[in-house]
Structure formats: C-alpha cells, structure tokens
Amino acid sequence: MILVEDLWFTYGEDFILKNINLEIGKGEFIAIMGDNGAGKTTLVKHFNGLLKPSKGKVIVDDLDTSKASIYDLSRKVALVFQYPEKMFFSETVWDEVNFALKNFGFDEDYRIHRINKVLALLWLDGLKDRSPFTLSGGEQRRLALACALAWDPDYIVLDEPTAGQDKYQREILTKIIQVLVEQEKSVIIVTHDIEFVAELKPRVVLMYNGEIVADGAAEDILSNEKLLRSSGLYPPSVIDVSRPLFDKGIIKKPIINIHDFIAALEMLARG
Amino acid sequence: MLKLDALFRYVERDTLMHKLDPRTKFIVILIYSIFIILSPSYTTQIIIILLSSILAISAKCFRNMMRSVLTVTPFFLIILFANYYFTRLDITAALTPSLRILSLVTVFTLFFLTTSPDDFSTALDKSGLPLTITLSFSLALKFIPTMMQQINEVMEAQVARGLKLDKGNILSRIRNYIPILIPVIILSIKRSIEVAEALEVRGLDLKAKRKPIVETSMSWRDYIYLALNTLIVVLLTAIVIYLAIP
Amino acid sequence: MSVILEFKDFGFRYTGNKEFTVRDINFRIRHGEFVMLSGPSGGGKTTLARAMVGLIPHFYMGEMEGSVLIDGVSTKNKEVKEISRTIGYVFQNPDNQIFMTTVIRDVAFRLEFMDLPKEEMINRVRYILDKLGIADLMYRRVETLSGGEKQKVAIAGVLVAQPKVLILDEPTAYLSPKSALGLMKLLDRLNKELGITIILIDHRMDLAIQYVKRMIVLYNGRIVLDASTKDALETALDKLYGINIPTISRLYHIFKRWGYNPPSPIIEAEDLSRYILKEVVKA
C-alpha cells in the first residue's frame, strides 16, 4: 500500500503540493488527473523517493520514503517517465531490459526468465538482439515498458503514457494495462487524457493547483462537468451526447465511454 | 536528487550588477580569468572567491551561486585528491589548482547569474565578431539550462531503474555514469539537429548583419566598475609578485 | 483558388536507409485550405513536412524523386531561407525553435537580419503578438511561460515572416487540454481572418474536426486517402490508419449499422443526441 499523509512539498518559495492525503491499495488501478502544472508528476516522484516530503509522510508498504533510498523504493515502485524511450543506452534490446535486473542484483537464471517473459508479454520476442535505437516508435515504447516491468515491481507508475501516441499504440497500452491489472499489480497512470481514462474507468484522483480536489470512481468524476472544467479539463465527448438522455430520464446515469453508451442504447432497444 | 537545471541560470533581479552592460561584465571576468590561471597563490584565489561572493550578495543571487558552486565542488575535491595523491606534494601545493578551478567557476557563475543571455548576445553582436561565433555562443548559453534539465531527467529515469551512482570504487563510479551519458549525448545530438533545422526555417542569414531589436548601452556605472576591477587585479598581481604570498 | 503547394511523384530515401520513407506522393494544396496530414507514427508525415519547407533536399541528404513546387517553382531551385518566407514551419517541441530568452527578441529573430528600422521591427512583432492574443507577453522571459504560451511564441516567430502557409508538426503533443483546444481555435482564426493556409500534422482528429476541411492520410510512406473530412469519416473509416477517430463519428457508424441514418459524422454532440432522442429511442 502507498500511503500519503498530509504531504506538502515546496520548491523555493512555492508550494507545489498542498496537504495531499491519499491511499493506494495493492492491486488498485488509479488515474491521477489534472491540468499541466497541477502537481501530478511531483506527487508520483514521491512514491519512489526521487522527491522527499517537505512536510508530512509518504509510506510505501513498510518503507518511509523520507528515510528509504531511491534504490530500495524503486524495487517496489517502477516510475516510467514521459517518452521513456529517450533513456535507452544499451547495444541490444536484451541488455536494455537486463540493466535494471542487474542493478537490483537478481541471479542470472531469474534474469533470463524475466527478460523472456516481459519481452513475450510486449510482443518483442523476435527483437532480442536488435539495437533499441533501430526499433520503430511503437516498439521502442513497448521496450521501455518491458524495462520497467522486468523486475516485477508491485506498483507501476506511468507518466503521460498516451502523449503523442497514435491509435495503435494506445490500443496496445490499453491491453498492457489490462494485463497488469489482472495480475493484481497496482497501476497508477498520470494523465490529462480524459478519453483514455473514460475507456479504462479506473479510480480517479483529480488534482488542481497542488491539491487533490476529487477522489472517486471514474464515472462520478468524469461525468461531473463543472468539477472537470474548474480543474482545467474537459469531460469526455460521450457525455455531451449522453447527458440529454440522462436529463430526460431515459438513462439512469450520464455515461462516459462509447461502449457503455452503446450497451445502454441496446438495452433500451430491447426494452 | 540533484537539481541541475537551476544551475548557472540567469536570475532576474533589479540590482546594480544586473544593470551593468554585459560587455563590461564579460571584460571583467576575462581579466579575472587570466589572473586566476596565472596566479600561483591560493590566497589570491580565496580573495577572488570572497569578492565574487560579496558581489553575488549585492546582486541578490548568493544562494543560487552557492548552489551552483557546491554542485561542482565534488570535482574540485577530486582534483585536490588527485594532486595530493599523485604528486605527494604538500597539501598547499594541491590546494592551488583546486582553488583555481573553484574561483574560475565562481567568477563565471556570477556572470551567468546576473547577465540576461539576450543582452549578452546583443553585446556579442556589437563586438564585431562574426555571426557564426556570436550566435553559436548565445545559443549554447540559451540551451545550457535545457541541457541541465535533460541530464536531470535522464538521471532520475535511470535511478528509477535501480542505477546506483555512488556504488563501488572510483573507476566503477565513472562507469555508473554511462547509462546517463549515452542518452544525454544522443538527446543533445538530436536537439542540435532540430535547432539547426529551426535556424534554417526561421530565416537565419549568416551573410546579413544582425540588428538587435533591443539595445544595450554602457553608462558611467560600467566605466567605474571596469576601472575598480582592473585596479583590484593590478593590486592582486602586485601582491603576488612582490609579497610572494603562498 | 490557386495552387500554392504541389507534390509531383515525390519520393525520398534518407542516406543510410535502404528503403524510401515516402513514395509516389501526389497532391496539391490551394490557398486558404485547412488540411490535416495524418496517419500512424512512422508513416512519413514529418518527411513530407520537411519537403514542404525545403529541408528536403537542402538540409537532409538522400535520394529524392519527383518534385515539390511552391507557387509553381521547384524547392530544388530555392534556398530554405527563401522558401520559409512562403511556408512557415512550427516544430513539435517549441523549446528547440525558440532561440532567445525573451519573447520580443525571439519573435524578432528573423527581422533582425533584414536591416529594418527598429520601429518597424517592434511594430511587426507587436502586430503578430496581437493577432495571436499574447501582446501582454512581449517583454516576458520565455522560461516563465506555460507550454501553450511557448507554442504561441514559436508560432509568432514563424508568422513574423508573413508566410502564406503554416505547417504544424504535432503541435498539441506537449500541451494541456485547454491549451490544445485554444491552439485549434487560434489556427481556425488565422485561417479565416488572415487567409493563412494551415497544414496540421497530427493523429488526433477530435480536437480539429470542426476546422479541418480535408484529410490526407499517409500509411507506410504512401498516400492512402485524400478526401474531405466529411467524406473521410463517412465512407473511408477503414483508411484512417492509426488515427484516433472522434467519438461522434464512431457513434455515427454504429447507428448506421443499426439501420438508422444520422445526418453527418461531424455534427455537434447536441444535434446527435437530439437525433438519438427523436429516432433511436422513440420507442
């Protein structure tokens, strides 16, 4: 469990995070949402100790992040930054994945087992000996995810995973997240991509100006237009179509994604 | 984690130091640099560091200077250690080269913290040097914070992949930096290409003369500052030559 | 309207690559159009953009087939500097095309080489900033700006040359939702008020759907679709490779499959929902 208690973070004279309280359970799937500059990335950098609280506490399982090392915390929490493929440096795909496994001191048998496993999971089996730099954009992004999953961390944090991604890459990302959720990993995505969140329907933590302004089910938060707009976001586009139907009492609640909307209409059609 | 992106970055303030013409400040650091490199005396280096600190306080950027200088202190210690270890000289002989670097860093830091890169580039353009040189210089200056930020990002990303920077002896510590160096170099090359492309499409004309939209000018303050500092360096030189202090 | 940009049997292979990145490219763009150049990553979009501004063949080495004509003149016979007076190019990351640390100096970058009187330079900078709605940023330092503001400064630095065409390469990738939407509205305004031809490179359609009139889709280096936005969404959904289709258009097709006949794939959400109320759930 990641436990954030009364967390404040200041940089220079500015408060970047103000009184954050948050509990993320094992196996939970969460989206931390908000406008640029809301403090999302600053918050998740506390989870693996890259940043230390100015005030308050962040506890990961049994580790207090203000005392634990980034190394020990990263063993539990994998933090994948925006455009992670920028960080490649190895000669082969295999070495790139192996890097973290070696850092964390795993023995060779386990490393081979894990590398094969994550490469297969991300459809990269055939590319073991290729240079990471010669892969296509989509393959590179998958490799970056493979690198982060290699050491089997319990918490996986993805910072703006859909930024600049085309439809195919988004579909693959959706599948990977679903697999991780099935494996009961905690998946935390940091994003302002409302359509992506609407499809996946995780628990949503909404931030604005360094504070958490809402925390709840995706359906509740993403259908709350006023709340979203005051946080610099826009509701998913299905809302605009489904709301008039909700207002007329035809459907029971505003619907945030297209699949649910279609399902609701089909229900109506069947009577 | 280190915060690299704030290092050596211009701090906007309204002080006397900030009002000086960049040319003045640049000439002054050139004079100091020559002195620092030639002077065998570590006492004079300390005096220069103290002087710069006072100026930094007057320019309201002492804290920024300390942060920048302290970040490079490890390198300073390595030089100190290496000198001491390999030459087996006394500690004062090892101190001089290290302090030399430290005082150079201090003097340059003060310049960058108090000089807007745009004003500096205007001053350069006025200096009569060819555009290729002045533009490269001012672009380099503009992209230093970007690069520092990038180093920071790469470091954070690799540390998040379990990289331990301070593990092992000196040699393996240097090797620990390879996963940081390679991405930083690749990113820098990519950025250079993009900047070069952008220069093309934004109409850079190397044959034309550049006429800045905002001017800088020298005033009486500049001449006084220049004279005072020249005097100080002359005095320091005299001290080194005639008093032969260590 | 007259043709401003034309690709004729264009193809390009970068030095060091075995295969052509793009090939058999033929299309014309007329004055005042608002075009979206789209397709999955790696399809060749950026390569075409480079060819439009003359970075291909003047900056990137390689083998070029066919030609690119600007106002009827081949880019081979013009310098990039010259082309950029007609065709403006905004890169994905504004940080790399902003060279100065204050807004006024950066926007004036190009003017400073043109031997203009200072007054005129200031007036031209102010005019552009005004048009972009960021006149108050004139004396600001670039590092204090938000991502959206930086993007606008980058656009200002390009527009100061008074180009007829503006190409933007994935301009929203780094922007917040609000800035991204604001940017689209701005492009629409530049298109309508100043008559600037807009070529938007992106694989998101939802933001620009109301403004984009024509879609050109690149897949594996070939043009697989060149149609009006309405036609593309109505009849060629299968050719919109890798593109994030707007929800309204997806709903349109689902209703069609169900045997209904909604008016258009690019209508406002309100109208669609009125249609649903009237036709789909009348029972």
Key attributes of the depicted protein:
heterotrimer, B: mainly alpha, 2 domains, 74% helix, 0% strand, flat, C: 283 residues, alpha/beta, Rossmann fold, six-stranded mixed β-sheet, four-stranded antiparallel β-sheet
Overview of the molecule:
The complex is a heterotrimer of chains A (271), B (246) and C (283). By secondary structure, chain A is of the alpha/beta class. Helices cover 40% and strands 23% of the residues of chain A. Chain A has one domain: P-loop containing nucleotide triphosphate hydrolases (Rossmann fold, 3-Layer(aba) Sandwich). In chain A, a hairpin with a 2-residue loop joins strand 4 and strand 5. In chain A, helix 4 crosses helix 5. The longest helix of chain A has 16 residues. By secondary structure, chain B is mainly α. Chain B has two domains: 143 residues, no CATH class; 89 residues, no CATH class. Chain B has ten helices and no strands. Chain C has 283 residues and is α/β, with parallel strands linked by helices. Helix content of chain C is 34%, strand content 23%. Chain C contains ten helices and ten strands. Chain C has a six-stranded mixed sheet, with helices on both faces. In chain C, strands 2-1-4-5 form a four-stranded antiparallel sheet, with helices on one face. The model of chain C has no long low-confidence stretch (mean pLDDT 92).
